[in-house]
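Progress narrative, work stream C.
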Amino acid sequence: MQYLHGVLGPIINKVFEEKKYVELDPSKVEVKDVGCSGLHRPQTEAEVLEQSAQTLRAHLGALLSALSRSVRACPAVVRATFRQLFRRVRERFPGAQHENVPFIAVTSFLCLRFFSPAIMSPKLFHLRERHADARTSRTLLLLAKAVQNVGNMDTPASRAKEAWMEPLQPTVRQGVAQLKDFITKLVDIEEKDELDLQRTLSLQAPPVKEGPLFIHRTKGKGPLVSSSFKKLYFSLTTEALSFAKTPSSKKSALIKLANIRAAEKVEEKSFGSSHVMQVIYTDDAGRPQTAYLQCKGPNPRNAGPSRSSGQKGSRGPGGLEMPRDVCDAYE
């Protein structure tokens, strides 16, 4: 929703504040008086249509410019979804004759089901506190139609449907090029960006458990000592185990659950504590790593026998089996 507000908010607010009379359909034009006091004259239909076209071209141009600048602001989950959609459609419809098909697949969601509905009903998307009046609603509807024409890649069928939208064609054609460039950048993620995207997606997943824990990550084959543990704030989601200095820290380390190979309790003699578990995982380069997590002590309500006494471990997010007493300590 924040992304939607960033792109559409300024344009929607301007339409509401200006309250201009905008109409492109000649059959619906209302002629009104214009001029100074005592010098009123009827405004011609051609003048109404030209002024309306100028207003809509300005709004559409501003919207497309804002969209073009929003690649980095687009939520990671949206980018990942559109990337997969674009690639699958392009694989299914190869060849120059289907050049626009992957773009239309993306804009069918981006424009038809996201931007256009928000433009026509800004209150439902919390862009405005109140519904638009009849005049503003008509302006928003015409703007949404123009956005959809751009999303359809300006096909002959869309032009023929409402020929009176023709005055917007120069802006629509330019908008098609802008939108295709935007989508190309949106789905073109290099290896480093893809890893950053995976990290962002993991952090966006709702936490299952979170709170302070102590961690020691091995570097080489040095001795295991309790003083090497560092207190950090952990967040366990269905995608990853992340940890940072504070809950509000922007920088955080991440262990994706898909990369965890084992999680098991460590014998008390190793660190002098019975509440330590080791997590064996691979990093993004595929190298094996080990991290030790230490809890202060088990939750009295949930404390149970250790795995060594025959009690099976609990299943964490992603189906990962974890020692029962360590799981309890984390609760």
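Work stream C, second folded protein:
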Amino acid sequence: LRGDMAALRISRAPNVFEPEDNIASLLEMMAGMITGRFGEPVSLQRQTEFFNKHIAPWAPHFFTDLEGAESSVFYASVGAAGKAFIEIEREAFRMSAG
């Protein structure tokens, strides 16, 4: 992940101490690649590669687990929304490839 971040000129903010491999940071990186926050907007091909490598393998499982949080209606709702979002993104990248 850090190698891909360096190649994309993405660096961790000096006041952030959490590891980069959390869902919030990864989705923030995706947003920055789309909007050009880290320089020029990143090509759709590169966005797809980043998504498939760093988000798609585990994010659906993460959001499914979060959706099952019985102790918090809020987190369960975030899980449901996140799971739907990741599925939409996955399908959009698939459609753009063919």
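Residues 46 and 83 are 22 Å apart (CA to CA). No further action is required on this item.
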